[in-house]
Structures are given as C-alpha cells and as structure tokens.
Amino acid sequence: MRVVCLGDLLLDVIVRLDEPLTSGADAVAVTHAGAGGQAANVAAWAAELGAEARFVCKRADDAAGRVVDEEIRAHGVEVVGPVVGGRNGVVVSVVGPDGDRTMASDRGVAPDLAPEELDPDWFTDANVLHLSGYSLMRTPIDAAAVRAGELARAAGARISLDLSAWTRIREFGPAAFRERVEALAPDVVFANEPEWEIVGGAYALARTAVVKRGARGIAVFGEEEVELPPVPAEALDATGAGDALAAGFLVGGPELALEAAARCVSKLGTMP
C-alpha cells in the first residue's frame, strides 16, 4: 500500500510544562524539537505502520528545512517537491501538565507550493492521497491540493482529508471551506468534534467520516457506523495524536488507528 500525503513539512517545537505558566515568571518544562506538520506526521506514521509513504511539500533550504527533511526521511518517507530559499515553517506547541496543547504556527514557505510544481508521477502509484485542510485555505497550495486530487483520482486512489483547526475554518468561512471540501469529494474525512460541527459534517461530507473525540475515542460514520473507546495510554503529549490516528485508519482501520494514537500520546513529539 502506498500513502501519498501533501502539505507542510515544519519544525515542531514542543514545550511540555511541569507547572502552569504564570505571566512574568519562569516555568519548569521539557522541550522537544523535530519534524512535524499535519500531513507530514501522517506520512511518517503510515511508514511506521507498514505502508510505503511519499510526502509532497515545498520546504526551505535554511537550517530548519534541512533538519526536518533529514528527519522525515529517517522515518522511511520519500520526500519530493521544491526546495527554495526563504524561511521554513515552525510550529510551537505548549503542552500543559494535563496533556492538552496550544499551538502557534508559522508555515513559512510551505503554502507557496503551486500546482505547476507537481510531478504527475508522484501520484500515479498512490492507493491513498491524504491532504490537510490547511492546504485548502491558502493560495497557491489550495490549487496544488486540488490538482493532486485530480491526479490521484485518475490513478484510482482514494482521497482522504483532515479538516484541521476549527479556528482557521472559522476565519476562512465555514461555508466557503465546505464548498472546497465538497469540490474535492474526499472518500474519507477526519475531524475532531468542533471541526465536524463548524462545517456541518453530519450532512454527508464524505463516504466515510472519522470523528475524533479525545478521551471518548472515535465515531466512524458511513457504510459501517461504529463507536470505539480509546486504547488506554499515559498521556504525555496529545500533539500529533490525530495524525497518527489518521495514518492508522488509512493503513489498517479503526483498531490500528486507536493503537497508533495511543502510541503517539505516550511520548513527546508528533512522529513515531
């Protein structure tokens, strides 16, 4: 099975607090820096779970870009797409003592990926094309995502989409975002509950929908409708758990999805 993902390859800086932040004071924390980005995480977890994985992105030739390129390749992911001058994206995730996280994102050059920079050969052997919803809300990467969908669909691949942050959807416009999702016509949609609600996901966004419900597990809607509890795990860091879950679902279904998510939350960092 080959999973092809398109999106941002970012430097993730994770700060896990041992105590709450207080304005003007220091807080004890553990930090981790490494490759990340929603679709990039899916690619890395797909490779970890036994699939062949390819990641399509635009990244910078600066120090951050070189570090994340080397790291995602070390996870067994083939990386393709233009390398350009400029600033690679960085995401800072602040994880509270309870495992919940808040993110500050700078996408750098990643959203500048243009459709004419895609090689059709990157998609002709795909079984699944996975896209990040972030890729539908900036130009020109939105056109690149649509073009990738056309190429993958022509090759017989399924298309999967993670709706991404509800705050970005609200800013973009829920109705406009839903129109883009419907035009893409994904076979599988992943969303947490706020994302699902803001786009009216209950009204048939895709043939299969996976709603991530945190400590209550997942609900799968479609030809088979199931609710499954999470796999027990000590939650150190929830960052990237939804991406691990998406990879597991695409590679092996709901049970593998929950196992992968449990593995992800049990450690710092978004990749395996």
Give an overview of the whole structure.
It is a single chain. This protein is an alpha/beta fold and 272 residues long. The protein has one domain (2-8, 37-88, 111-265): Ribokinase (UDP-N-acetylmuramoyl-L-alanine:D-glutamate ligase), CATH 3.40.1190.20. The chain is 31% helix and 28% strand. The chain has eight helices and 15 strands. It has helices at 38-48, 63-74, 141-154, 166-172, 174-184, 193-198, 241-252, 254-265, and strands at 2-6, 10-17, 29-36, 52-56, 59-60, 77-80, 83-84, 88-95, 101-108, 128-132, 158-162, 188-192, 208-212, 218-221, 226-228. The strands form three sheets. The protein has a nine-stranded mixed sheet, with helices on both faces. Strand 13 (208-212) and strand 14 form a beta hairpin. The model has no long low-confidence stretch (mean pLDDT 93).
